[in-house]
Design a protein that fits this description.
It is found in: Nucleus. By secondary structure, the chain is mainly alpha-helical. The chain has one helix and no strands. The structure holds a DNA duplex.
DNA sequence: TATCCCCGGCGTCATGTGAA
DNA sequence: TTCACATGACGCCGGGGATA
């Protein structure tokens, strides 16, 4: 089973502290190989043809859902990575602010003396 | 080396949701 | 209301580390 390419580059998830705007890929313009477009319902007659049509529809649905599930997992993973990056950024900011506060307190104490 | 356990990825089904 | 798509839940499978 082939893998689809990533829609978002690493740069877009860079730890800037901002939430990235996810780029959703445009839907494929052509059906994958092996998928046969169903004949129009009016051209079906025998029970066998109906059964084949039903099978074709089911396979098409399964294939689309397979792809959708992959894409969904990819996006979820990307989202989690983004959150982890944001956590790291905020932790750094917090550390910096605490140090800054400490420095200001020291300064204030020395001036007060 | 064999076995166990955990984890991540996958396919499928059921269901929610928005658009036509 | 119907349809297509997105996503949560579930079970299965294979890889890799830990242990006897």
């Amino acid at each position: 089973m082939q893998k689809t390419g990533m829609a978002v580059t690493g740069d877009e998830i860079a730890a800037t502290g901002d939430m990235p705007t996810y780029q959703i890929r445009a839907p494929p313009t052509a059906l994958p190989q092996g998928v046969v477009v169903a004949a129009s319902p009016g051209s079906l007659h025998s029970p066998q043809q109906l059964a084949e049509e039903a099978t074709r529809k089911r396979e098409l649905r399964l294939m689309k859902n397979r792809e959708a599930a992959r894409e969904c997992r990819r996006k979820k993973k990307e989202y989690v990575t983004c959150l982890e990056n944001r956590v790291a950024v905020l932790e750094n900011q917090n550390k910096t602010l605490i140090e800054e506060l400490k420095a200001l307190k020291d300064l204030y104490c020395h001036k007060a003396e």
